[in-house]
Amino acid sequence: MDILQVENVSKAYSSHLALDNVSLNVPAGEVYGLLGPNGAGKTTLIRIINHITAPDSGRVIFEGHQLTQADVEHIGYLPEERGLYKKMKVGEQAVFFARLKGLSKQDAVRELRKWFEKFDILSWWDKKVEELSKGMAQKVQFIVTVLHRPKLLIFDEPFSGFDPINAALLKEEILKLKDEGSTVIFSTHNMSSVEEICDNITLINKSRNILSGNVDEIRRQYFGNRYDITFGGDARTLMERLQPLAGDFSLLEPDAQGRQRLNFHLNDGASLRDAISAANESVVIAGLNESIASMNDIFIRAVKEDSGNQV
User: Fold this and answer.
1) pTM metric for this prediction
2) Both 199 and 243 in a single domain?
3) Domain count, the chain
4) Residue 306: helix, strand or coil by DSSP?
């Protein structure tokens, strides 16, 4: 079941078309990656989903009905550009935001202290916000966003400014929220994070949806018919023997045992069995695996291809 459906949404600002007939479906209980270059239209779409602005055409469906202002209480939103009141105490401000989300003061304090302890910032409860580092301030904002357990969470570049340890902590908590039933829309430029935590993605470029689907399926299909071969012997001889059957060769980093590795594309209509046989005649094969593209490769290739098609 889809918790959110965006149907043919378009939005223009003056002479700029921010979204051009964009559609996507977000399954309930999954982490959904919203990807795209700067200025592609991601933030505009997020603002529409949060009922901050309205589309010029199209509609947003939330839990089976057209999105209304009342639905916003079931959405937690952590924008990329964040702000806290610098002169307030950290705990006081967190309680203030929690009360705005409908929690009683007693419940807010109890739940916030649990989260603060988990994020190792409890000692900063009575200090002023202006004393926080950027990373600690982001932790506070993340906590306030998820505290009321909204059905849909939207994070815009949540790992920006985090060191690897705290980024890993945040990823762990996002996956826990998913396991507990929350749906997460996750907007980022960090493609490794997409591979680690996203189930499905939509890639927006120049205001249009150019790629949607399951992350694992996209990674397997987008660079289809590619293989990595690990071998002992002469790489040039191997490529010469494979030439009639394959192309687009790329030498990779050696494996842990120091053996050479070659990535290649098997020509359409060519037999993998024949390619293995040809390789066997020139080198000692230690392994052969289907090559799965990284999301970073897919992002770059898809955007370049789409931009080229629009010229």
Assistant:
1) 0.83
2) no
3) 2
4) helix
